[in-house]
Amino acid sequence: MKIKFLPIIALSIGLASCGNATEESNIEENNEDVVSNESTDLKSNKISENTTADLDVVSFVHGVSFASQLKQQQLTFLNPDNLIKSFADYRVNGLGDFNPKTAVTKLREIAGRTENFKTVAGEDLLKVQNIFSKLFFSDIKTSPLANHMNSSKFEEGMLDFWTNETMPSEDSIKVYSEFVSNIQSKEGRVFLAENGKKEGIITTASGLQYEIITEGSGAKPTDTSTVIAHYEGSLLNGNVFDSSYKRGEPSEFPLNRVIPGWTEGLQLMSPGSKFKFYIPFELGYGERGAGQDIPPFAALIFVVELVGVK
Question: Is the Cα torsion angle 52, 54, 57, 58 positive or negative in sign?
Fold first, then answer.
């Protein structure tokens, strides 16, 4: 079984490449693999039914995830023992006046003159290590697991992977994956459960919810049709992540190349229709999320106007 890591936010700031990524339209389904790793040399770890034991397992695997991502980002100049000492200090004394935005600017400046940290040394190395340790601590403390994690088990998993590069058992990974999934998908599940009770909301067998704003007429598309549509997509907090309305023209795309919620939902519409869709994460971007704007396990809201069918 592959481990589906909970991303560490600071590792997404692009320092390893110092490049500017151009994101694809959020409508098209992201087919990149989830960050994963596996080994034939799996560590045996019996899972207890006891909640405390399960949280220990979750914390250990999260530490493995953290160490693996450090290595994948080629941040191997960081010393895990020093990170653990720093984390212990921050738990007691806090981060002071640390400013993440200013810190990232400094990291980019150092990365630019040290070949993305390949030649970092001396005072620069000390600054980089200090900044990264604070960024990581901030991310860990604000992650969905922060209120559940056993710090000593997290650090044990971190050191274990850093030293041995062996993965936890499949049972451990399963406990971790289910725990993370339950935490991250909870907001969406609660919202959809309440939303489905509202007048005018229709819920399909798949869990897709929709309401009809305007009913059009004519032949509805099939799952192989190409459609032309205006739309706006947002998260439950109201943040708009994509909008053809803002671009000033509708988008055209085949229904077999979009997220499942769109493939199913637009087949319910005739040209001229305007629907509002409430899409559970399983019918959206799943456990991966998409780009910087759509987090893992995110329920999505789309207002869609079907302009035409080809």
Answer: negative
- Enzyme catalytic residues: 231, 241-242, 259, 285, 302
Beta carbons within 8 Å of 113's beta carbon, 6+ residues apart: none
pTM equals: 0.60
- Select from 3.40.50.1820, 3.10.50.40, 3.10.180.10, 3.20.110.10 the CATH code of 196-309: 3.10.50.40
Q: Where are the domains of the chain?
A: 9-185, 196-309
Task: List the chain residues with pLDDT less than 50.
Answer: 9-50
Angle in degrees, CA 41, 44, 48, rounded to 5: 155
Give the torsion sign (CA, 118, 67, 41, 286): negative
State pLDDT tens for residues 165-191: 888 999 999 898 888 888 878 889 999
